[in-house]
Every structure is written in C-alpha cells, then in structure tokens.
TrEMBL record:
InterPro entries the UniProt entry points to: Isocyanide_synthase_DIT1
Name of the protein this chain belongs to: Pyoverdine biosynthesis
Organism: Phytophthora nicotianae CJ01A1
Length: 304
C-alpha cells in the first residue's frame, strides 16, 4: 500500500538525468550534502565512532544512487511516536510543543540547505513508530492520533515543504491491530530473544537500554511495587518491544529501500543507519523532544 503523504507530491520528484554531469559536479553535490549532514549528525568519540572508516563510504553509495537518478535525496527517520506517558518529570503534556517545533525547523533547514546545491531537492520522511509501542506504554490510540495530527498541523502552519509523514497504518490491512500482521509478514515471531540476550552483547545492551527507559517512562506505574517486581515487568515489556522493533525496522527498510536511514539513537555510524541530533545538546548526547522539555539559556540558546 502506498504511503500517505498529506502534503501532496513533492515538487522536485525524479528529474530527467539526460544531461550528463562531470565527476566533479557529482563530487561537489555529495560533499555539500555531507557538510550539511555533519551539522545534525550525532557522533561517538573515536575510536568508537566508525563513520570515517566505514560509514562515510556506505552513506556516499546510498546518496550517490539518488543523485545519479536526479531523484530527491530522501532520508527516512523513524521517530515522533507520542509524548512520554511520564508527565511528572519528563514532559509537560500529551501534545507536541516547542521541542518538536525546534526539531521540525532543524530538519526543514537541513533539507533546504541541501537543495541549495542540488535542485532536485531533499525530503525528510518521518515514519511514526507510535503504533509499535503505544499499547505497551499505556498510551491510548486517541492520544497518539492527537499527537500525529498536531505534528502535521505544526509542519503545515510553519510552511515546511520538505517534511513528510508516514506510518504503519499505510501498510497493513488491519489498522486496528497492525502488530500481528507485521510480525508475521517479516517472520519475527520465531526469534528467541531470551537466548540472544544471554549470548549477544549488542542485543543485551539494547535490552538493558529498553529496561532503563521503561523504568523512567512508566515511573507512575511502578509506585508501590517492589524493585524486583518492577524489573520483571520492565524485562517482559522490553522483550515485546524488541520483537516489535525488529518487525517495524524491516517494514521501514522494505518501504524505503533506496532512502538514507537516519535514527534518533546513537550508533557507531558504521552504517547503514546514522544517528542525528534533533535538538542541539551541550552534552553531545542525543535527546528526543518527546522525552524532554526545552529550556533556553540567558543567551536564548535552546536545549533539553
């Protein structure tokens, strides 16, 4: 099923590539893109970060395929699900606020800057992952829809023309309960995460990160519960999240096979996914607007 781009067709979709470019022209476009991407990219310190050694060449290959076709350089960002359910000490409410607004401005500015050197343009597809986890975190479908609608209204009101929205709903038959269909389609149900958590360091780290995240996001749910009971509950939910995330990631890859995959998570940048900052951070660690509150320093510098 085709994605639902509410903004209508992008004005620069594939242009004829009949006019040959020189190698120098291709290189200039790529280097311009790389320079602009560096401004939003999240990086680990060396030697953990592998962008220069591995990721740069992989990114160049993906971007150059689009440039050679004179297609818009398309980036896909799975993100902006809903506000954290913890409105006590993480967020101010259920709807997008200044944090999301700053993020949209940042992404739109990036696309416009890329377009300065590449007339076919650049577009950012935000693929909402809200339906992947909302029931596990106790977020109602109504609250999720309200968040999505407000995000789209925010982009439209701001006049952003390079940001598009997509979601799981556009790719399933049963919109009311999409998860079983996605897990079956991408053969995820057979995966044994209990064993993988014990034997694979990367999977174990992801599991521990999810558990830590759940402790804070569902803090109100743990009131009056023993720490051991809380940890058991977090572990159970974390494994469900990992199963679903594998299926969702496969869906995004399947739906956008030619796009550059970016992420709000911090990676070693070896590819094929590359981490970005949605809001500049003094610490250098990425923070997501739906888990944070924006503050401004005396010099008006925003951060979370």
């Amino acid at each position: 099923m085709a994605p639902n781009f509410d903004q209508g067709p992008y004005p620069h979709d594939v242009q004829p590539a009949s006019t040959l470019w020189t190698e120098d022209e291709y290189t200039k476009v790529w280097e311009h893109f790389l320079d602009k991407f560096a401004a939003i990219q999240s990086r680990f310190p060396a030697p953990i970060d592998r962008f220069e050694e591995e990721g740069r060449a992989k990114m160049q290959k993906i971007v150059m395929r689009m440039i050679e076709r004179r297609a818009p350089i398309t980036l896909v960002l799975p993100a902006f699900p809903f506000k954290s359910p913890n409105s006590t000490d993480k967020v101010l409410g259920k709807l997008p606020d200044r944090a999301e607004e700053l993020s949209m401005e940042r992404l739109e500015r990036f696309c416009r800057e890329v377009e300065e050197a590449y007339p076919p343009g650049c577009k950012m597809v935000i693929f909402s992952d809200g339906r992947v986890f909302n029931d596990l975190l106790g977020v109602s479908l109504g609250d999720l829809r309200a968040f999505e609608n407000e995000m789209q209204a925010m982009v439209k009101e701001a006049g952003h023309t390079h940001i598009y929205f997509d979601s799981m709903d556009n790719y399933v038959k049963n919109v009311d309960d999409p998860i079983p269909e996605i897990l079956e389609r991408f053969n995820v149900l057979h995966m044994d995460f209990d064993t993988r958590i014990k034997t694979e360091a990367a999977i174990r780290n992801t599991y521990c990160s999810f558990c830590k995240f759940l402790e804070r996001d569902l803090a109100q749910q743990w009131v009056g519960m023993s720490r051991s009971a809380m940890k058991r509950s977090c572990g159970k939910i974390a494994k469900q999240m990992m199963h679903r995330n594998v299926g969702f990631s496969a869906l995004v890859d399947d739906s956008y096979p030619d796009a550059l995959r970016i992420s709000i998570h911090q990676y070693d940048n070896a590819g094929p996914k590359f981490g970005i900052h949605l809001i500049p951070q003094k610490s250098g660690k990425p923070r997501t607007p739906w888990h944070s509150v924006v503050c401004e320093d005396l010099d008006s510098t925003p951060h979370t």
